[in-house]
Write a structure and sequence with these properties.
By secondary structure, the protein is an all-alpha fold.
Length: 66
Amino acid sequence: MISLKRLFGLTPEQKLARKTAKELHALSDNELRDLGITRGDINYIAYEPVRELIKKENYEAGDHYM
């Protein structure tokens, strides 16, 4: 079940992801290129830890078996 904090983006992980995305969006295209990422990658990169946390929270024993 999704919590209200997660629904409204108030978890610490979501706040950090938003801050990271904001900082990356502030970089120039040349600076992003130096880092090896494109503008289209920013949100994916910033929110990866949030997706991993959700995956862990939703994991149930036996999920890896078919």
